[in-house]
Amino acid sequence: MKKQWIIAGALLSFLSFSASAEIGECEEGICSEVMERLQRSADYGSSEAMIIMAVAYANGEGVAVNTDRARVWMKEAIRFRNPQAYHVKSQWRRVGRIFDQNEERAEYWLSRAINVGYAPAMYERAIRNLQANIDIDASIELLQDAAEEGHPESMYTLARMYEEGALGEVYPFEAAALYMHLAVRNFRDSRERLREYTQTFEASDDAEVQAFARTLREYENMEVIVVRAMQGDSLDILANLSERLQSRYFRTPGTGTRLRRTSPCGQGGLPCNVVFDRDGADTPASTIGELLFGPSGSAPVSRF
């Protein structure tokens, strides 16, 4: 009998191009200063800065919309083999943003991201296949691999499947274990679901089940310290990122040359003095918030 798969909710949040955590309005000069530092990091070989600049120019976040520059920075990030760039390029190709719409190329870039172990791409492929009811076993393996990498969406989806018997039978202990790890991150309703499992297992007469319940209770009772920036989470994170990238890539003064980058500076004996001419190069998407914080576009606010 062919299995029927029902995936609750629209779990394709990675295709949403308007997240809550965007740069938005900020004090005059601060955004431009942060973006200038990020752009300089990209010029000096940071693939992380490159993909952020690509998305920034595509969406007009912190800079004016410029599709040519978005395209150039995306190509550069891909040339530097940034896994996140593969994934965003796949999204852009799928919906025809910045580049022409091409489903085949979208799948190609998605596969590139998966092949280098990028968990969000594994999750996307798995959910698409499960919704289409194809390649079920391989999709479950992708979800499991992404969950092992700590990808919260994959962990939560897998927990719900264990919980609801989507794999042929119910796996309460496996589901509880996943909720246990998600609870300390305040992910969705994982803490409430963990509490229900804890109470159920505590009522068991089995000593091993009770021991497991005690472990769950420890996680449930773990204090979560909420950390929020007073102003603009995304901007604060971007500022910190730009400073980190500067310390990594700006090891020597720039020479003013217009040579094309060959590899990240500081690697293979190359000093950080190569500048790429963006303007002279031939030339719906994730927001910066999504690049920094994941598909939800919300800053991680809990630590333990």
How would you describe the overall organization of this protein?
Keywords: Signal. It comes from Aliidiomarina sanyensis. This is Sel1 repeat family protein. The chain is mostly helical and 304 residues long. It has one domain: Serine Threonine Protein Phosphatase 5, Tetratricopeptide repeat. The chain is 55% helix and 1% strand. It contains 13 helices and two strands. Strands 1-2 form a two-stranded antiparallel sheet. Helix 1 packs parallel to helix 12, helix 2 runs antiparallel to helix 3 and helix 4 packs antiparallel against helix 5. The protein is globular, with a radius of gyration of 22 Å. The termini are far apart. The N terminus and C terminus are likely disordered.
Task: Give the secondary structure arrangement, pairings included.
Blueprint: H1 30-43, H2 47-59, H3 67-79, H4 83-95, H5 103-115, H6 119-132, H7 136-148, H8 152-164, H9 172-183, H10 190-202, H11 207-220, E1 225-226, H12 233-249, H13 288-293, E2 302-303
Antiparallel strand pairs: 1-2
